[in-house]
Design brief:
30 helices, 65% helix
């Protein structure tokens, strides 16, 4: 038999095999409709239990304590023309957070919610999940579209698009974004960015229609208004076209122009309305962990955190809502963890570069991670913290795509030269090994995410869970102790209240050990001891805080109160007068009146009680004690007048003189 005859026979055999396979009816092609249903339902399965959560962490910044949001629709103008934190802080955020924040779009959604529902954390959680489900559908469409009309079209009907999206949904590192209402900006940013890139791919694929450019422009602009991270898609979109489409120079020009215009408009708005530039100097180490670090320490620490991100992509445990000062210490290249991270980064970069010419999925995925991560890497400007799980929400899509690719490859060991063949979706299900891996990954990740959602129930639950894995976090110690104090303030049972105050003490003391200059903590510790009637310790911590902030109104005021309790009236008067110099309300005057009265100077006491009444005409206790002084001085008419007025206003409030 000749070679030619043999070749024909082999071809015929292949055709028969192919026909038999098609006639068997065993091959299954996933329709878009079924994929959308699967993704939508799976999203709510993984995150549905977060709907019953309350507010946690920074939710109050964008909702319950944001003045602009609480104006409802009427606050949208203020939201659009101010820094993102102004409505919460009620002042400029310069030198409070690293750079400025111009992210109005998610705040607008909160304002609309407030207009119709008021404060409703459960509805806000539901909206977060709904938006994430839509985002997931967008990711599926995006991944599938990448392979259409490209050299990788054999993957178009494979399991890769669905697998990538399912892994992305289930990944526990995303729980911070979905379960934290405030992080809606991350979801909206990715949602608009993904659908924008789909529009620009449609422009190339569907006859270069101008409407695709216009819609793409609107979507990327909305993405940037949601959060600055979308800005990197101005790079990512042309890069994707280069990787997966045969575009002309004219195509790149037409695609790039709307992207640049969107970016330019955002920069103009950010410059006009954000409180600070990205280069604003932050001198507080709690808002910039690299304050005081050498360039080598900063670089080594950034390298270490990137390596930690890589590890958390694979093993997302333990998770934490804070990776702040003292959680991740400054590194050097004498630290083996920094060296290992550096080697891993170099190795991954080399793989991406080597495979770049072939335009492989692996190379694209690595570049996707690198480009979308660049803005939050701390390399170009400080972002206020060493790292955060939400920072890899968008970049992690690259990781998920790589995992899906290798699972698919395990079930489809296809020679890349066979570009005419296409991979079927159900091949990964028929392969026992790939099916086991899929079930294991999605099962483990889903259980971890569902469990992690419960940690986000409220501040107390979140901080109690995370402080176990990050015991040296300043913010976690602060958050947990403050949550305990807040709960103590509403407990009526005195013993239970004391127990809660006592539980808070070691966490506050640990903060002072880690960061002695944190004056706010001295105030809180003083308050705890005051409420426990341990006035000596209260004085000790208030004095400690004044060592670092001698003109602090609150420290001088509370120290004066505590000294009054210890009957050290002359010293109390000294600090209360210092508090008055710093401004404030009627509190220092009331305590001055108490101090003078208790030391026997009734005239001075009366003088300051009258000053309190001048500042706060509804303060019944000031009228009451003024009446007692008039009575002691023999002026019964005045005494009756003031005592009657006090009674009319509600009498003496025993808690009116507790510290702040």
């Amino acid at each position: 038999m000749s070679k030619n005859q043999l070749g024909k026979k082999q071809i015929a055999t292949k055709k028969v095999t192919s026909n038999e396979s098609s006639k068997s009816g065993k091959s299954f092609k996933l329709t878009n409709r079924y994929a959308y249903i699967i993704l939508f339902v799976f999203t709510f399965i993984v995150y549905g239990n977060s709907i019953m959560n309350d507010y946690a962490l920074d939710d109050l910044v964008v909702d319950s304590q944001n003045d602009f949001v609480k104006k409802g629709v009427g606050g949208i103008k203020d939201i659009m023309t101010n820094d993102a934190f102004t409505g919460y802080l009620k002042k400029s955020t310069n030198n409070i957070v690293a750079g400025g924040r111009y992210r109005p779009l998610s705040l607008v959604t909160f304002a609309i919610e407030y207009q119709f529902l008021g404060l409703s954390p459960h509805f806000s959680h539901f909206i977060n999940i709904l938006l994430f489900a839509i985002c997931a559908i967008g990711i599926f469409i995006f991944i599938r579209k990448l392979f259409e009309h490209s050299q990788l079209k054999l993957f178009a009907n494979s399991a890769i698009p669905l697998l990538t999206t399912l892994i992305f949904i289930a990944h526990p590192i995303h729980t911070e974004v979905i379960a934290n209402i405030k992080s809606r900006d991350e979801i909206m940013c990715m949602l608009f960015s993904i659908f924008s890139i789909i529009c620009f791919l449609n422009y190339i694929d569907n006859g270069r229609k101008i409407k695709d450019l216009i819609i793409g422009f609107v979507l990327i602009f909305l993405g940037i208004l949601s959060k600055e991270n979308a800005f990197m898609f101005i790079v990512m979109i042309p890069f994707t076209l280069f990787f997966f489409r045969k575009a002309s120079l004219k195509d790149y020009v037409f695609v790039t122009i709307p992207l640049i215009v969107a970016g330019a408009i955002f920069i103009f708005l950010r410059t006009k309305f954000a409180a600070g530039s990205v280069s604003s100097e932050i001198t507080d180490i709690l808002n910039d962990p690299f304050v005081g670090a050498t360039s080598v320490q900063k670089f080594a620490t950034i390298v270490y955190t990137i390596g930690k991100y890589f590890l958390m992509m694979v093993i997302p445990y333990p998770l934490s809502c804070f990776y702040d000062y003292n959680t991740i210490s400054l590194k050097s290249f004498s630290d083996i963890s920094a060296v290992v991270s550096f080697i891993a980064i170099i190795a991954i970069a080399v793989i991406a570069i080597i495979q770049f010419k072939k335009k492989t999925i692996i190379s694209y995925s690595i570049f996707f991670f690198a480009i979308t991560f660049a803005l939050v890497s701390n390399i170009f400007f400080p972002i206020g913290t060493s790292m955060s799980e939400r920072f890899v929400f968008m970049p992690s899509l690259g990781f998920c795509l790589i995992v899906a690719y290798y699972i698919n490859k395990l079930a489809n060991p296809v020679n890349r030269k066979q570009k005419s063949e296409t991979m079927q979706f159900d091949s990964v299900i028929k392969n026992k090994t790939s099916l086991f891996i899929i079930v294991a990954i999605l099962g483990i990740y889903s259980v971890m995410s569902i469990s992690r959602n419960m940690d986000w129930k409220d501040d107390t639950s979140l901080f109690a869970a995370d402080i176990k894995s990050s015991p040296n976090s300043v913010n976690l110690n602060k958050g947990y102790s403050y949550a305990l104090i807040d709960s103590a303030n509403v407990i009526k049972n005195k013993q239970h209240q004391a127990d809660s105050f006592n539980m808070a003490k070691p966490y506050l003391k640990k903060i002072i050990e880690m960061y002695p200059k944190y004056t706010e903590i001295y105030t809180k510790l003083g308050y705890v001891y005051y409420m426990l009637n341990n006035f000596d310790s209260a004085v000790y911590y208030y004095r400690g805080g004044l060592n670092y902030s001698h003109d602090s109104y609150i420290l001088n005021y509370n120290l004066g109160k505590s000294l009054n309790k210890l009957k050290k009236y002359d010293e109390a008067i000294k600090y209360l007068n210092e508090a008055i110099k710093s401004g404030g309300d009627d509190g220092p005057y009331f305590n001055l009146a108490e101090a003078y009265t208790n030391k026997g100077d009734l005239d001075q006491g009366l003088k300051y009680f009258e000053k309190v009444i001048e500042l706060n005409p509804k303060r019944s206790d000031a009228f009451y004690y003024s009446g007692l002084i008039y009575k002691a001085k023999g002026d019964t008419a005045k005494a009756k007048e003031f005592l009657d007025k006090s009674k009319l206003l509600g009498g003496v409030n025993s808690n009116s003189n507790s510290p702040n």
